[in-house]
Write a structure and sequence with these properties.
There is one protein chain. The chain has 202 residues and is mainly α. The protein is 48% helix and 10% strand. A three-stranded antiparallel β-sheet has the order 2-1-3, sandwiched between helices. It is built from eight helices and three strands; from the N terminus they run αααααβββααα. The model has no long low-confidence stretch (mean pLDDT 96).
């Protein structure tokens, strides 16, 4: 699992690398403003508290337990976005290979069935949120729609891949056509990252 600190991470590719699927303008807003705002807010909230020494994952779990929605939303959105950038690659797309392919075939029948379920989940999620591919305690893959900032980390499930379907993720490039954004995701999905996540512990 990638190491996520209290800092805004560098993107794993240039801002223009996923154009035209995700434009540089979208990254300037989505990464440069939205994600950066979550990081700035989170740092203000934990400054001069014991939480400064916590990992972002532990801050998320602490905030969930304490029902601190402001802290939870900013910490989880920072973690989710940091994870999401790695789910994309200019060299991605195509069908999966390796262990993730075997598990998809085992748990969903075949890639086409998995792709249809994931796309429908992402498209039909009402309002803002995330479509997650996660692995449960039985090591079975699950597709999970999660509202707002919610994340599999608080459900004791291992995140494998995600797609951000908050409107700010796609509106500049696709206006209100979320299904087109979801369809385009398959051309840049990073299966290497998915395979890495299967190998690592939370």
């Amino acid at each position: 699992m990638i190491d996520i600190t209290l800092d805004l991470p560098e993107l794993p590719y240039p801002l223009h690398a996923l154009n035209p699927i995700i434009s540089e303008e979208t990254f300037n807003y989505h990464y440069g403003k939205h994600h950066a705002a979550y990081v700035n807010n989170l740092n203000k909230m934990v400054k001069d508290t014991s939480l400064e020494a916590f990992s972002v994952k532990d801050i998320i779990k602490h905030a969930k337990q304490e029902k601190n929605s402001g802290l939870f939303n900013n910490a989880a959105q920072h973690w989710n976005h940091s994870f999401f950038w790695n789910c994309l690659s200019p060299n991605g797309g195509q069908e999966p290979s390796g262990h993730i392919k075997s598990l998809i075939n085992r748990d969903f029948g075949d890639f086409e069935s998995f792709q249809e379920i994931f796309s429908n989940t992402a498209t039909q999620l009402f309002g803002a949120g995330w479509a997650w591919l996660a692995q449960n305690e039985n090591e079975t893959l699950e597709i999970i729609p999660m509202k707002d900032a919610h994340t599999p980390l608080t459900e004791n499930k291992k995140p494998i891949l995600t797609l951000d379907v908050w409107e700010h993720a796609y509106y500049i490039d696709y206006k209100n056509a979320r299904p087109k954004f979801v369809e385009a995701f398959w051309d840049i999905v990073n299966w290497d990252f998915a395979n890495e996540n299967l190998k690592k512990q939370l």
